[in-house]
Amino acid sequence: NWKMKEARLVLKDGKAFLKVVFEKPLEKVEPRESVAVDINMNEIVVGKDDTHYVRIPTRLYEVHHWKSLAEVLQMKYPKRWRVNKRILVRIKYFYSKAKRIMEDFARKVGKWVVEVAEDFGANVIKLENLKNLIKHVNKLSSEFRDKLYLMQYRRVQYWIEWQAKKHGLLVVYVNPHYSSVSCPKCGKKMVEVSHRWFKCICGYENDRDVIGIMNLNRRGSLTLSSAPQMRDVDPNR
User: Fold this and answer.
1) Is the whole-model pTM more than 0.90?
2) Which of 22, 34, 38, 89 is least crowded, fewest Cβ atoms below 10 Å from its Cβ?
3) Each residue of 115-138: pLDDT tens digit?
């Protein structure tokens, strides 16, 4: 039931591209089960609880590698790289490669998250509200801050929501405050006993990502997305 909205012929670098935009009305969906998505630099965890979840490794290492290659050239030729065509082309290639890898990953994650949700019998996906993500960035180390920007959290969420709407799933944004350190069993603050592994005085323990999805999945109501409506995109994305 997709309807064609518009078509545009774009000429770029001597090539012609036909971009066709389709639209589909959102169907009313009754919320059933939900899954939550916890995004970090090493992996994306999708699940319902501490027994039903899937880990998706990120490609941040590759992105950071290609970006670093570009920066090495810029530092090696601090003045020449802006005017030397050969060096400039190489630098642009490295940056472009990093950007393409992250965009490709973000699109694929959107599909994978929807598939996991459907496998778990859920038709609601809960995402973290990232409005306060950038507020304290300046207090972080330069390396951590660099990786944070490279990860493109909002871009990953964009494609998750796009795929969710495409397949008739709902999206709810919830407050992530203390979601990774609060005990999902008793609600008390947990203590990190080893790298990313937390334990509560009640006896419950798990890694912070699984703890995160458990807490996120209990927050918010099973309602329609509170995020702005998505703009039209190419139908083959």
Assistant:
1) no
2) 89
3) 999 999 999 999 999 877 666 666
